[in-house]
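for the recovery benchmark. C-alpha cells below, seq after
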C-alpha cells in the first residue's frame, strides 16, 4: 500500500471518529443503566439498578429521578417503554419474582405493579411494544415479554394493550444451555401482532427464532430456527441485540461479553426478513450489546462495553465511533454503567 493511500485511510478513520461522537450528559445518577427509550429527541426515559428510573423532557439537559416503584428499591430495571411524558412501563429483570412490570400514568409517580413472574426458575430478558396501525396508534399496539426458557421453551407473554399480559399458548423451543440476553432490552424485535424475532446465545446458541406466525410459510409448526454467524461456544457468547429498519433488512450484534475487545463474530445482517444471515465482512471493534437504525443518517449504530461503531452499508462493514463503555441505546440516546448517558452529536447526524 502506498503512502498516499495510507494517509487517505487514516484520514477517513480520524474524520469518522471526529464527526460521530456522543455528547456526555449529566444524569445525576450512579446506577448501572440498561433501559432507554426515546419517545423523541426531546423526551426520553432511562432505567437501571437500585430501582432507578429517569426522565428528560428537554433533550437530555436535565434528568429527573422518578419515584421508585413500590418494593422496587433493589430491583434492576432493564427495560423501560414510554408513550409520552406521563405514561410509561418499566420491567425489572431477575430470578423468580424479581422480574416484574410496573406502570405509571402520572409522569414519574406513582407506579403500580402490573404483573410479576410466578415461575421460580424464570428470568425476564426483554419487553417491547410496537404500533401496528397508523390510524389510532394508542389503540392498536402489540407488546411482548421474553424470558429465559421454562420447560425447554422461551417464556413469552403477549399484550394487546398497555395493561394486560397473557402467557403465550405457543412459544419457541429452546436448546439446552440457550437463553436470551437481558443486556440491553433488545434481544427481541416486533413486526406486528405475534410476529417477532428472538436472538439467542449461551452454549445452545446463537440463533434467530422467527415466531410461528412470522415463520408460517417455512415452518409447518413452531418457530423457524436460523443459525447466526456470531461468537459461540460459551455461556457469555452469542447474539445480544436485533433490530430491523423495515420488514426485510435487519442487523444483529453480539460477541462474547467476557472478551470485550474481540471483534470476530460481533455482527451479522439480513435482507430477507431474518431467514438468512451473513457475517459482517468488517465487524465492530468489539463485543456489542445493542444496535439500532438511525433513519436521519441512514446508518446503523452498535454499542458495547469498549465503544461504538457505525455502518453505512446495512451492516456489512463497520467503522469505530468511540471507545466508551455503553450498554443500550434508543437513538439519539445511549446509556451505560455508573449513570452514563450520551446523546449523538448533531454533527454526527
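predicted aa per position
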Amino acid at each position: 500500500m502506498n503512502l498516499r493511500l495510507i494517509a487517505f485511510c487514516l484520514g477517513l478513520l480520524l474524520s469518522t471518529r471526529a464527526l460521530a461522537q456522543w455528547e456526555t450528559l449529566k444524569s445525576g445518577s450512579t446506577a448501572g443503566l440498561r433501559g432507554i427509550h426515546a419517545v423523541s429527541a426531546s423526551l426520553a426515559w432511562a432505567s437501571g439498578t437500585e430501582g432507578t428510573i429517569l426522565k428528560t423532557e428537554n433533550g437530555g439537559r436535565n434528568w429527573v429521578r422518578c419515584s421508585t416503584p413500590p418494593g422496587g428499591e433493589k430491583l434492576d430495571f432493564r427495560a423501560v417503554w414510554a408513550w409520552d411524558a406521563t405514561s410509561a412501563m418499566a420491567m425489572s429483570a431477575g430470578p423468580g419474582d424479581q422480574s416484574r412490570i410496573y406502570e405509571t400514568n402520572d409522569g414519574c409517580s406513582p407506579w403500580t405493579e402490573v404483573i410479576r413472574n410466578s415461575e421460580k426458575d424464570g428470568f425476564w430478558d426483554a419487553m417491547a411494544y410496537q404500533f401496528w396501525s397508523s390510524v389510532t396508534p394508542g389503540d392498536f399496539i402489540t407488546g411482548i415479554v421474553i424470558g429465559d426458557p421454562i420447560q425447554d421453551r422461551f417464556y413469552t407473554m403477549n399484550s394487546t394493550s398497555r395493561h394486560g399480559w397473557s402467557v403465550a399458548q405457543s412459544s419457541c423451543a429452546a436448546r439446552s444451555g440457550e437463553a436470551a440476553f437481558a443486556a440491553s432490552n433488545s434481544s427481541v424485535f416486533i413486526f406486528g401482532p405475534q410476529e417477532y424475532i428472538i436472538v439467542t446465545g449461551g452454549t445452545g446458541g446463537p440463533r434467530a427464532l422467527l415466531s410461528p406466525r412470522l415463520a408460517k410459510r417455512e415452518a409447518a409448526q413452531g418457530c423457524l430456527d436460523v443459525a447466526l454467524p456470531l461468537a459461540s461456544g460459551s455461556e457469555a457468547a452469542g447474539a445480544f441485540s436485533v433490530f430491523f429498519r423495515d420488514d426485510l433488512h435487519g442487523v444483529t450484534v453480539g460477541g462474547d461479553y467476557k472478551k470485550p475487545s474481540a471483534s470476530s463474530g460481533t455482527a451479522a445482517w439480513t435482507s430477507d426478513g431474518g431467514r438468512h444471515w451473513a457475517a459482517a465482512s468488517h465487524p465492530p471493534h468489539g463485543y456489542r450489546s445493542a444496535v439500532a437504525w438511525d433513519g436521519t443518517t441512514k446508518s446503523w449504530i452498535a454499542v458495547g462495553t469498549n465503544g461504538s461503531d457505525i455502518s453505512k452499508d446495512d451492516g456489512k462493514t463497520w467503522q469505530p465511533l468511540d471507545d466508551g463503555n455503553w450498554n443500550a441505546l434508543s437513538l439519539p440516546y445511549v446509556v451505560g454503567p455508573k449513570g452514563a448517558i450520551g446523546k449523538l452529536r448533531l454533527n454526527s447526524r
